[in-house]
Amino acid sequence: MMNQEIRDLLKGVSIFSNVDDNGIDKLCDLIVSKDYPKDSLVFGQEEAGDALFVIAEGRVKVVLYGESGKEITLSFFKPGDFFGEMALLDDMPRSANVVTTESSSLLILKRDAFKRHLEENPTTAINILSELSMRLRTADSIIGNLTLLDVYGRVAHFLVDLARQEGETVEEGILIHKRPTQQDIANMVNTSRETVSRALNEFQKRGLLKMDGKKVLLRPQFYTEAG
Prior knowledge:
Strand content: 15-25%
Distance between the termini: 42 Å
Shape: globular
Number of strands: 12
Structural class: alpha+beta
Strand order of the largest sheet: 1-8-3-6
Oligomer: single chain
Number of helices: 9
Order of helices and strands: HHEEEEEEHEEHHHEEHHEEH
Radius of gyration: 19 Å
């Protein structure tokens, strides 16, 4: 990416929203860019955390692996999102694995550069705390959904949350341009890929959504059904 593109991207990242132009310019000098093919491990659980990552292009997922090898998906991140900050704040190992779901370009801010930036821009630390609080609330909601909702309800709530984060309002409803794979959704809501497929087909049969490849259109009545 060109330096101006990186600069524009960083200005749109939530934790850097209060950083002035001079601070953004300094940040650009501290950041390095690295490309990852699809299905690459960005870092693994229990690795030493030495960098913060910002997604310039592509997407990643945060996953845990059970003793049997079963994958549990915790979250997905898209361009403009950041991850890896927890290990920099508490000096603990990485708490999960991060894997690319498509070819991705990541901006990397190493620990020393991250600390230098925080010293000069303390508002970034406040923004990080705000973001961590929001992510904790989201995690609480997911745990509650896993406990209280049936499988179809969990799939529906996943789509509603995805639409809220990434959806585009169109005449017929909310359009999600890139839904995760059915297996990724299954890993997220603790069910099988086949069950996710049945749920999506049932929603489509009832006219609640329309699927076209990776695109999903959620019609207004979908929100009423999803509660």
